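Technical appendix A lists one of the benchmark inputs used to test multi-chain prediction within the project. The record comprises three sequence entries:
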Amino acid sequence: MTAFLISICTSAIVYAVSILYASIGEVFSQRAGIMNLGLEGIMLMGAVSGFLSVYYTKHLAIGILVVILVGALLGLLFAFLTVTLQADQTVCGMAFLIFGSGLSGFIGKNVTGVASGVKFETIEIPLLSQIPILGDIFFKHDLFVYAMYLIIPLSMFYIYKTRPGLILRALGENPAALDTSGINVFALRYAYVMFGCAMTAISGACISLSYTNFWNEGMTGGKGWIAFSLVAFSRWNPGYAALGALLFGGISIVGINMQVYLPGVPSQFYGMLPYAATILALIITTGSFRKKHTEEPAALCQKYDRESR
Amino acid sequence: MKPFSIRLEKRQTVSLRKQILNPILFVLLGLVLSSIFIAAIGISPFAVYAKMVSYSFLNLRGINGSIEAALPLILCGLSVALAFQMNLNNIGAEGQYAMGAIFGGSFALFGPSMATPIQMILMFLLCAMGGAVWALIAGLLKAHWNVNETIVTLMLNYIALLFLDYLCYGPWMAPKQTTAISAAIPKNLYLPDIAATKTNSGILIALVIAIALTLFLHYTTAGYQIHVIQRSVKTAEYAGINVKRYIILVLALSGAIAGLAGFVQVTGVVHRVQAQLPGGSGYTGIVIAYLSRFHPLTVILVSILFGGLINSCAAVQIMGVPSQIATMIQGCIMIAVIAGEFFNHYQLTFPTKEREWEVNE
Amino acid sequence: MKKLISVFLAVAMVAAFLAGCTSKTPNANEEAAKIDYSTVKIGEITSLVVNDGGWCQATHESLLAAMEELGIPKENLIVMENVAEEQVAVKNAYDALAGEGVNLIIGASAGYATFLSDLAAENPEIVVAQQGDKVDNLIGYQIRNYEGMFLAGYASALMSETDTLGFAGSMSEASVRAAINGYALGAKYANPNAKVQLVWANSWYDVDLETQSAKTLINQGIKYMGMEASSPAIPQTCEQNGAFCIGYNVDMQALAPKAVLFSYVWNFTPIFKNIITSVVDGTASSDTYYYEGGECAKISAFNEALVPKEIQDKVLQAKEDIASGKIKVFGGELKDNKGTVLVAQGETMSDDQVNAQEFLVENVIGSWN
């Protein structure tokens, strides 16, 4: 039984991490006032570019660098459209979704279904991994997971405790006020959108460089959408996003296990569980009956135009 | 005057000519953008585009094919366009379409046989109802508890598609069938083709809905009030408009239209209920709604262009172009058109040439 | 089809006539019978890309091999990739291929059957071969995958120290159930107490769900599993957790060398050769149905590092026994996992029932509908 619980927990962590990079990136981007619906497309671009570079160079570090670069470049384009050209963010996101999934399939066509030979391997942390149960759950993972252990507290610290974090929150709440106080709203938004997209691309790389070591068209299988949903669900807080991701991953894993423990129910219904749970959790955490401040950045999705200030 | 030689100026109004020319110009730019990728794999982009156009639009077979491929896109596009009139992001057209097909399909497959017209009408209403019910969940949550409709509709997509999967792989699967597809619906429920051209008559249904939608939005009190709400919820509330009721109404209507995609597809094209039915139309619908600037009639035109683009991808594969080309071109065009939108509202002016006060039409 | 036959007849007659007029060679008939295959043009419709590392790749490679053996140049094959299993997409791909003048279209996914059947009826000049059940107007072809999967289950049970094996399935479709049942029956052949725990991913391709399916099985203490899934996620999950599996579709050993014992491989080459030959010599008939086992339900070479020699020998022996009819995979007495007797002692299941596979055999834990 403990072995079983350990396994469910480790699986949930691995799953959660693969969407958390995107989610946390999107938290920053949305906090800055820019919503990117096209995470899935950027994840796919991250997955394919990471895989391609590792496939040809056999160096994981180069792979990650390329992934970050590709993500940041896509972010630059996204920021250009949404910040400079003030395009509608929902539609821009859809465009990126389609563009990313099409282009990733297009450039990855020749390396589909072959193994790259290298991937991020599990590293057992000395001492810590010896702790009974907890060691097995938390300290037998690969670098993506360990990095995430740092990113979650650091990003929360950044958002809530530092001055740049304060500015970031203001960026999504009241950009005009920031602008008058002499802060360059446009440059900051560019930076955060690029950061968000780079993180999203890393999420994709998790799948092609850590989960597995191959590439296939559309292999992110909807994770970008889940990552996007987590952002509002977590009330723009990386810590809650982590909890949400664990919950979603945990439920979908338990769902598959239920096929073994509670057979007789059509397995598709178990497949629906995580989605239904997300709706439920969304209602509970953001429903206005809570009579609490929603924390949704007030300027999210609003065009910001200096002239009409 | 600043020392810049070029500056941006906000246009006050945008002429109709500009409104039409601008997207066309930027679609062309999008094609130039995607031609870079096509050229990169060593194939002439001109040859590819020429083949696409000639395959999908320069003959009756091609046009009919484009229209047929466009049917679900039109209805999903209209659905999204309607929701957007109130700034509601309905990205759930996919799931509403699936639910429409499920409601209508259950009647077509297992319902009692009646006079054909009654059966047709019932089927039509049921498909609309299926989509409406599914969107209503999001509508009620949004109206009463302000729960983010984008995410709820998205999650409902997954649930609806899994339910459709369950039906098509399970109780509805046709006997002696190895794939997730139901038996054929009764022949009298087949939508007839337009005799003269063999065009799928689903296009007429789509056209009627688009016209009805245009009339509804522009010539009814409800349409006007929706417009007020889009401008500003606060103003609307101040004017005594029941915004909640409109959120529910508009999302339900939007869902109903997406559900009708299930109707045209099941009665007009596939004649069966199938697990793969929606196949991403709901998401493409969002793109189409935007590219058409949310004008119902333009949605039809853009959808047919998209249908042709999707169809022609088969023809260009013969030239050695990867099958993902259609998706990639769609993405490039979208990005270009989105960028182009900016220049509808802004204008580059060259003060040095003393033309800065040129009338902005 | 008729037109094609008549064209060939006409050509043959003219050839015979000319031969008769000029040189009076006695072997004119022989010459006419010796047909140049290189003129046949083939279209292939697949649901993903042809190098997907799974099903589409297996079909495509088989087709290329068949063409090579018949001396048909590669250029004669036109592939339509990423064709969704829905009416508009299939019709469109068909039209594009027809426009290129192909003689034969191969629909490489069972999902195309209903649509291709209608199209083939409208245009009998193009022969359409379709994977899956027999459907009107189409040459049907399918492989008795349960024969290969029987060997997979047999090998797994021989290797396993425990009685419980696992199986990670994709979607509950007849050919998938055939794979599961074949695997379970093979396991039972090795060990009468063997049970097979089944888990569905409910997706044809989903890296996450497949990974989780494999994990779920491993959590049950299962070390050996079979799979019917397209991505290498299951073998790779096994590899990370010290479990083993039998690859599916194509040989997956390279993707997870420490976990894949061997793979079940679809080998359509013999079937495609027959179909192409029949198209060229004009004997193709849409009533034909190929339901082949033996070399078509192939297993790859063994992973020498993992499978001991004596087990290899036993598996190869079982393979021969299936071929010779000594082992009847769906032979009686056979019960399903609800206790119903499917086949009485001494009898064999009819091909219709085998094809539909609306059951899971006795030692499978799980449900199919």
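Chain A has one domain: 2-290. The longest strand of chain A covers residues 123-124. Comparable benchmark entries are summarised in Table A2.
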